[in-house]
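Need residues for this backbone.
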């Protein structure tokens, strides 16, 4: 189906009776162009949400206890683990959301200057310093980049979603962290800067940090309108501006599902637990902190793949609600908060996704999105359901913005279809 048909008369309708027709109820949602931050709470259908980005993705048990308590007392007790390794607390009142930065800064969960706090945000290999196969200089590289970004006041002009990453590889292989500018470990203890389609020649991490900051400055001063992660050609433009030598990288799928399914023991006393669909309760976070403090090294390592990693573990931790079975279908499912929490969502998502878990064909992935933005999973899934005015549209092997091939009117129609998909999958597998 042509993309131009998506908002018009393209998708076939299939309701409980099997009647088909024409459907076009997928309105384009408002794209805000920014993400909530410590000093930038966002109003949602279930109240205000606030976001915390722990330094280098590491949360001390005492900090986790505090966040769980604040989420329970001042919010609605729902906490999201985002694809930027941040924690998102939901359901705050306006006054509580305004007071939250002071609480967070006092607990070491942010900087008091809003510009510095925003600039320091980055993704870092979650197991840096713990995984012997992760580049030894990863933490030092990340700290150096963080210091440089905090001091580069002019980079406050970067778009709200502009991101940096330090990718040391290891158990979570290089190439999985996605950002506009990435410092990636290479052979011989050297680092390469990746920006859009371009990869710079390997160098020391100190020089790579300088290149990364220079590329960000060039983005600002050349008034680019699209981030390198959205348009790979922007990286080539920035390299040309700086006269930076590099090579063009072929685009590769992110394969985030590889890490979503990496739960249980990781070796070296590390143990990964998954928050189903990136959502946990305040009680679940409190329980994870309790295990970290009493059985481990007191640190919760956040990943961009909906998992927490605990270190210093001598036995498998047990936390009610968290997934530790690597074969659980919940590890292959993404869902946003849905209409109960987001004004742009046209339908409920989380309960539907949970109920579809046992109906998901073996090895298949599922994304249930409340709108076309696909916030929970911008990438492709085997099955993507998009809520619309009249039901749920199905996109196969695509994202929430992809071509809708059919519509299910009512949740029962969705369940019936997925029962059929599971049977088809079993036949294809010879079961």
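Answer:
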């Amino acid at each position: 189906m042509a993309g131009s048909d998506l908002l018009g008369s393209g998708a076939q309708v299939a309701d409980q009776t099997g009647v088909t027709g024409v459907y076009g109820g997928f309105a384009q949602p408002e794209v805000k162009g920014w993400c909530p931050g410590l000093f930038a709470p966002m109003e949602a259908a279930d109240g205000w949400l606030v976001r915390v980005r722990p330094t280098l993705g590491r949360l001390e048990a005492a900090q986790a206890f505090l966040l769980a308590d604040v989420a329970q007392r001042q919010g609605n007790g729902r906490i999201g683990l985002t694809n930027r390794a941040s924690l998102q607390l939901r359901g705050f009142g306006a006054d509580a959301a305004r007071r939250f930065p002071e609480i967070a800064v006092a607990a070491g969960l942010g900087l008091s200057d809003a510009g510095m706090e925003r600039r320091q945000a980055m993704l870092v290999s979650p197991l840096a310093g713990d995984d012997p196969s992760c580049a030894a200089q990863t933490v030092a590289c990340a700290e150096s980049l963080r210091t440089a970004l905090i001091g580069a006041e002019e980079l406050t002009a970067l778009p709200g979603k502009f991101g940096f990453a330090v990718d040391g590889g290891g158990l979570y292989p290089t190439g999985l962290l996605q950002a506009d500018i990435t410092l990636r470990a290479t052979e011989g203890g050297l680092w390469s800067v990746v920006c859009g389609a371009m990869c710079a020649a390997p160098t020391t991490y100190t020089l790579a940090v300088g290149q990364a900051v220079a590329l960000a400055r060039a983005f600002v001063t050349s008034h680019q309108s699209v981030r390198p992660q959205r348009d790979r050609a922007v990286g080539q433009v920035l390299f040309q501006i700086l006269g930076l030598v590099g090579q063009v990288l072929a685009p590769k799928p992110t394969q985030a599902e590889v890490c979503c399914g990496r739960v249980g023991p990781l070796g070296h006393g590390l143990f990964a637990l998954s928050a189903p669909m990136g959502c946990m309760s305040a009680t679940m976070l409190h329980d994870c902190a309790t295990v970290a403090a009493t059985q481990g090294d007191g640190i919760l390592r956040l990943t961009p793949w909906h998992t927490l990693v605990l270190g210093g573990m001598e036995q498998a931790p047990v936390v009610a609600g968290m997934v530790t079975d690597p074969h659980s279908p919940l590890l292959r499912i993404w869902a946003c908060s849905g209409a109960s929490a987001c004004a742009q969502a046209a339908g409920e998502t989380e309960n539907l996704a949970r109920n579809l878990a046992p109906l998901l064909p073996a090895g298949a992935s599922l994304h249930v999105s409340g709108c076309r933005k696909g916030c929970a999973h911008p990438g492709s899934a085997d099955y993507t359901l998009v809520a619309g005015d009249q039901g749920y549209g199905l996109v196969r092997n695509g994202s929430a913005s992809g071509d809708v091939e059919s519509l299910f009117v009512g949740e029962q129609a969705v369940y019936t279809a997925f029962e059929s998909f599971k049977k088809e999958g079993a036949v294809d597998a010879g079961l």
